[in-house]
Amino acid sequence: MDLEHYADELRQQFLLAAEAHGDEARGVAERLVGLLDSAVQVAMLGLLSEAADELTRDLAPDTVELRLRGMAPSFAVTRAESAGGNGGQVFGVPDSGPPAEAAGEDNTPARINFRPPEHLKVRVEEAAQREGLSVNAWLVRVTAAALSGQSERGAVMSNRFRGWVR
User: Fold this and answer.
1) pLDDT in tens, 143-165
2) What does the pLDDT read at residue 81?
3) Which residues of the chain have pLDDT under 70?
4) Alpha-carbon dihedral 74, 75, 76, 81, rounded to 10 degrees
5) How far apart are the C-alpha atoms of 157 and 148, rounded to whole Å?
6) How many whole angstroms separate alpha carbon 134 and alpha carbon 35?
7) What pTM does this model have?
């Protein structure tokens, strides 16, 4: 996706608006337009990132991600039920897929209002980022695993401890 077209349009509109206020305003605008280029690019990337997050919320458990090659953004869609046998990988992170009990269930997204305390929200965001997922996709995966009797790492949850103790 080429953002340069949109940046050019914004530059032209900015210069056109300055021209209406005379030569001095146009001169100032010409000097400022070069300084605004990187800020405009960052703002557009922020907009695209928010759009990807909103699409991910609406398409859960599928995810939409914004990827950059240099400053050229593109969207990548990862389906929860991976087509083509690629294992549902997102940035090289294997998708464990839906738990066995959830397979075959209706995957129509539903909304839920979740308001965790700030410290928990931060930990959820960090965990999702570590796995290369959106917060929504991570929460869907963890919730499905918890409801099927698995922890987020896929181990069976119980009140017993296993391992070695010294």
Assistant:
1) 877 787 644 444 444 455 555 55
2) 64
3) 81-107, 149-166
4) -170
5) 10
6) 32
7) 0.45
Six-digit token string for 138: 């991570």
Q: Which residue type, as a one-letter code, is found at position 104?
A: G
Between CA 77 and CA 85 the distance in angstroms is 15
Beta partners for 73? 68
Identify residue 151 by its one-letter amino acid code: S
Spatial CA neighbour of 3 closest among 42, 29, 33: 42
* pLDDT tens track for 116-136: 888 888 999 898 888 888 888
8 A C-beta contact, residue 49 and residue 41: no
User: What sign for the dihedral angle of Cα 152, 155, 161, 162?
Assistant: negative
Q: What is the mean pLDDT of the chain?
A: 74
Question: φ and ψ at 158, to 5 degrees?
Answer: -160, 180
Confidence (pLDDT) at 111: 78
User: Hey, what are 75's tokens?
Assistant: 């969207």
CB 78 within 8 A of CB 90: yes
Asked if 99 contacts 114 with a C-beta cutoff of 8 angstroms, the reply is: no
Q: Between the CA atoms of 121, 122, 127 and 133, what dihedral angle is there, to the nearest 10 degrees? A: 70
Q: Which residues, other chains included, contact 45 with Cβ-Cβ below 8 Å and sequence gap of 6+?
A: 3, 66, 68, 71, 73
